[in-house]
Amino acid sequence: MVPILATALVGRSLGVPRVRKPVVLRALATDLTGTVHSVERRGHTVVFGLGPRELIVSPMLAGRFQLVPPGTKDPADLALAWPVDGLELRYRDDVQMGKVYLTPVGVLPVGVPAVGVDVLGPDFTVEVLTRILGKRREMIKVVLMEKAALDAMGNAYADEVLWYAGVHPRIPACKLTPAQVAGLHAAIVTVLGHARDEIRRRAPPLDEKLRDFLHVRGRIGPCDRCGTKLRTLGVHGHDAYFCPQCQSEGAKVGIVDWKNVGR
Question: How far is CA 263 from CA 71, 146, 187, 195, 210, in A?
């Protein structure tokens, strides 16, 4: 979503928005304007750089964006709509849990949690991941989804990363061997980098979650690697999809041979 927004909006100007659900606002509507210099993901927020200010949208569970021609019929869940040089940028939220902030650059709004290391940035190394996991006794899937540690991974991508790395979702983070940590680092960079590139290439509608290229999430068929039937289990309030053969709880799997993994 963010690469698509960046391609469409950088260099264009956001006009004064129409406000349909003011409960999402944490700033004056007339302030939410300016030329878009950048669009980036920061944790579970989308940050629009407007020169010395940042427009930060925290979509929470249900928020989503659309780019439509002006005059398109308003959907019932429309919260805000900005005119953008012949288009309209819409933020939709049918449960009104999302929040829209306007802050000086670098100022974290109250209510928006700090985020950890960018897993697709140059600072994310095996050594950094080793320090993050450290002596943490939580299940590894829980740590992967903790935004204060790693920026950022949701339920679906955590499952995919663990499958690629051959790591069981319930293994305590501190129990991973050095080889498993190295494999997990490689899987994070590979899976999320591929997802970013695939979504950018296919450019789906902004409100569509593209998941059909994932190997495990939402599937009930055989594992693409070994043919064993995929399973689900609970992990600290979340469900996890995994392969009981490739991700055996006690296995010391290490790094997967990427050439043997189908796409």
Answer: 41, 27, 14, 12, 15
Residue 46 lies in a domain: yes
Q: Summarize the confidence of residues 29-51 as an average pLDDT.
A: 88
Expressed as residue numbers, the domain containing 164 is: 117-260
What are the structure tokens assigned to 14, written together? 């956001």
199-203 long-range contacts (CB < 8 A, ≥24 apart) are: 199/1, 199/3, 199/4, 200/3, 200/4, 203/4
At position 175, the amino acid (one-letter code) is: K
How far apart (Å, rounded) are the C-alpha atoms in residues 191 and 186? 8
Residue 110 placed within a domain: no
Instruction: Encode pLDDT of 111-135 as tens digits.
Output: 777 778 889 889 999 999 999 999 8
Residue type, 85: D
Answer positive or negative: Cα dihedral of 75, 77, 79, 84: negative
Residues 61 and 81: their CA atoms lie apart, in Å, by 19
